[in-house]
Design brief:
alpha/beta, 434 Repressor (Amino-terminal Domain), Rossmann fold, 6-stranded mixed beta sheet, 11 helices
Length: about 350
């Protein structure tokens, strides 16, 4: 008769076992565990996969020396817009006695492996991504090193597992366009941000929905996408306003784009709002100082940043979030750049 024996659970994996399995040195595995940046991305991925398969139990992450800080990572650094985010973050971090480190991705939507490794190696209390997000492998790397992260308004919100703070961009586009339609405009153009960014798509979708409400179709050539900056608003503004069938109103996807539209109108001898109504988006401080002051959609950037920072600090204390997605309300701020059209078309 064959003797049966109970199987003993496998022994916990050690760094040496992980190193032997992957074919690297113990020092390399240690570097990965400690978030060091001097490990090749492919090697790091193989080590992380082995650690996850063996359910290696990592030691608690060492806290930064000194008061601690969070790292703020921007998709792209625009001084006007970014300062509103930074002010919102600073309101929370200063009360908590924390510092802020700032970096940017030069337009990329996810950090390069070298940068992320460097951020992890600094051992921040957490990472706050603005209009960018870590890839799924990078999310696993952050989790493995005990570095929480939160995203401010980006397409990573499509994943329920990604803690995100945004605003209702569709509603913002709807409110802006409704305002122009209620004033009597029937030929309205929209200049939104990059077409591959969800907030740009959502604002344009709100623009279309407002037309649907009153039974109007949208001319495809009056829907434009570009960057959120002044030069994009200026270039599209010159093209749209130079047409013989020019629009009587333009809804811009950012206040900076709207500034570019105002400049284009001035160059073409058009008066705002008598000849052209203009609406921006964000309600940056500059919106109140343009000539004329700009009607715009208030996107509560400071509140968004402050909320996201609070979520990040909660995660850094091993807390659980009540919800992983928060969308703040957008509101229309009416100033002097919009009025009824002199020649409703």
């Amino acid at each position: 008769m064959t003797e049966s024996r109970a199987l003993s659970p496998p022994a916990s994996a050690t760094i040496a076992i992980i190193a032997e399995e992957v074919g690297v040195s113990v020092a390399t595995v240690s570097k990965v565990l400690n978030g060091r940046s001097d490990v090749a991305a492919e090697t790091r991925a193989r080590v992380e996969e082995s650690l996850e398969r063996h359910r290696y139990r990592r030691r608690s992450r060492r806290q930064s020396a000194g008061p601690g800080q969070i790292d703020l990572v921007f998709h792209e650094f625009d001084p006007e817009w970014a300062m509103e985010i930074m002010r919102g973050v600073e309101t929370v971090t200063s009360a908590a006695g924390l510092g802020i480190a700032v970096s940017q991705l030069n337009g990329a939507h996810s950090p390069a492996p070298r940068l992320l490794n460097a951020l992890v190696a600094r051992r921040p209390l957490g990472l706050l991504f603005v209009l960018c997000h870590p890839t799924e492998p990078q999310q696993r790397l952050l989790a493995g090193n005990g570095v929480p992260f939160v995203v401010v308004d980006t397409d990573s919100a499509t994943s329920a597992s990604v803690p995100t703070v945004g605003s209702n961009n569709w509603n913002g586009g709807l409110l802006a366009t409704r305002h122009l339609l209620e004033l009597g405009h029937r030929r309205i153009a929209v200049i939104s941000g990059p077409q591959d960014v969800l907030c740009s798509q959502a604002r344009a979708a709100g623009f279309r929905s407002a037309h649907d409400e009153v039974g109007l179709s949208v001319e495809p050539d009056l829907v434009r996408y570009g960057s959120f900056y002044v030069d994009s608003g200026h270039a599209h503004g010159l093209e749209l306003l130079g047409r013989p069938d020019r629009p009587t109103a333009i809804f811009a996807g950012s206040d900076l784009q709207a500034v570019g539209v105002l400049r284009a109108a001035r160059q073409l001898g058009l008066r705002v709002p008598e000849d052209l109504s203009v609406i921006g988006y964000d309600n940056l401080p500059v919106a109140g100082w343009t000539d004329p002051p700009l009607t715009t959609v208030n996107q509560p950037l400071r509140d968004m940043a402050g909320t996201a920072t609070g979520m990040l600090l909660e995660l850094s204390r091993d807390g659980e979030l009540a919800t992983s997605r928060i969308d703040l309300v957008t509101e229309l701020v009416v100033r002097e750049s919009t009025t009824s059209p002199a020649d409703p078309r």
